[in-house]
Specification:
Blueprint (H helix, E strand, L loop, with lengths): L11 H29 L12 H4 L4 H6 L20 H24 L3 H19 L8
Helix pairs in contact: 1-4, 4-5
Length: about 140
Amino acid sequence: MSDPKSQSKPMKEQLTYANILQLGAWTGIFLLFASYAIYVLGVMDPHIPLETIPTLWTKGVHAYTEAGAPVGWTWLGLLGTGDYLNFIGLALLALLTIVCYLILIPGFIRHKDWTYAFICIAEVVVLAVAASGILGSGGH
């Protein structure tokens, strides 16, 4: 049996990572529930009328974009509509990974753990480029 005192302790950045991840995840989940309630209860008018949605289910994404669905980051301009308000919670959950990796980088550099520092930096770059849409991926 190993001595508990000999086990390494997490870096303060790892504890901050865990705390931010927990707070961010619960905040994102709350925002998703709240925005869904706003949408379902009709508090805010949707961008795409609710009665139109079932007719688009059997069609491809092209028909949905022709009906007025945004492409890429243009959803930001539709946050005042009931059907796109929920993107705030989704964006927060997606952004958490990048934020948490950014928090880890200084600790890994301080401990001269270059492999993990490089992995975190690479993750941030890859996720940021993917989210930016620079490469034109995502099927839009």
